[in-house]
Automatic annotation (TrEMBL):
Keywords, comma-separated and alphabetical: ATP-binding, Kinase, Nucleotide-binding, Transferase
Identification of the protein by name: GTP pyrophosphokinase
Record's keyword annotation contains Transferase: yes
One Pfam family cited in the UniProt record for this chain: RelA_SpoT
Domain of life: Bacteria
Keyword S-adenosyl-L-methionine carried by entry: no
InterPro entries: GTP_Pyrophosphokinase, NT_sf, RelA_SpoT
Lineage: Bacteria, Bacillati, Bacillota, Bacilli, Lactobacillales
Pathway: Purine metabolism; ppGpp biosynthesis; ppGpp from GTP: step 1/2
An MF annotation (GO) of this entry: ATP binding
Length: 211
């Protein structure tokens, strides 16, 4: 039994904090170089203890194998404007020397039956602790703003209905997922036009580079 969850989660919190800074730093660098940034914003969280315990029971994960078998105790989300940006971000993550990609799941090409779309990357990330280096698994979810909108709504409804959606809601959610993806496709079709306008806007108004 893990008796002290706070201590167990210390390196996970450190990994999330460090990765948030690094990924936000990538956005800042694109802005400073006055080029289109594929990263709109970044969020991160350590999975709450009750969710970890619930997932261990659901997936029959032995506590001794928790660190290896639960890949999303440390979780990062990168939101992008365009689907093309997602694949650029994935390439950028692959090129980094400070982390190792261990698994990838492309739920954009292979959309989940629920309608969920995102690109998941599982990384091994070394954190420096007072007891030496510890490699932490973290899951980075890369998605468009539109995919994020859908996933956030579906997640709250899932919480309310515990996964057992009434049929009508189920159907509407699936339709909403396709509508969200259609929005992404329409935006992609005029991506160059949009990016040109965004550059003119940010230069013209003399906007500050912000987080
Ligand atoms: P939370 O609250 O987001 O942290 P499993 O967790 O068993 O479903 P697996 O193989 O561990 O699956 O990992 P997977 O499918 O790559 O990623 C799981 C996470 O992806 C979920 O975390 C969600 O964040 C997201 N996700 C996957 N499928 C869906 C979906 O249909 N709808 C929504 N809204 N999100 C999804 P958790 O554990 O649910 O928790």
């Amino acid at each position: 039994m893990i008796e002290d969850w706070d201590t167990f989660l210390i390196p996970y919190k450190q990994a999330v904090d460090e990765l948030k800074i690094k990924l936000r730093g990538m956005r800042k660098q694109f802005q400073q170089e006055n080029t289109h940034t594929p990263i709109e914003f970044v969020t991160g969280r350590v999975k709450p203890v009750d969710s970890i315990i619930e997932k261990m029971q659901r997936r029959q994960i032995n506590e001794k194998l928790l660190e290896a078998d639960m890949q999303d105790i440390a979780g990062l989300r990168i939101m992008c404007q365009f689907v093309e940006d997602i694949y650029q971000v994935v390439d950028l993550i692959h090129q980094r020397a400070d982390l190792e990609v261990v698994e990838e799941r492309d739920y954009i090409t292979n959309v989940k039956p629920s309608g969920y779309r995102s690109y998941h990357i599982v990384i091994a990330y070394p954190v420096q602790t007072v007891h030496g280096e510890k490699k932490i698994l973290a899951e980075i979810q890369v998605r468009t703003l539109s995919m994020n909108f859908w996933a956030t709504i579906e997640h709250s409804l899932n919480y309310k209905y515990q996964g057992a959606f009434p049929e009508e809601i189920n159907e509407r959610l699936k339709r909403a997922a396709e509508a969200a993806f259609m929005l992404d496709q329409e935006m992609s079709a005029i991506r160059e036009e949009i990016q040109e306008a965004q550059q003119l806007f940010s230069y013209g108004k003399g906007q500050q580079v912000v987080d």
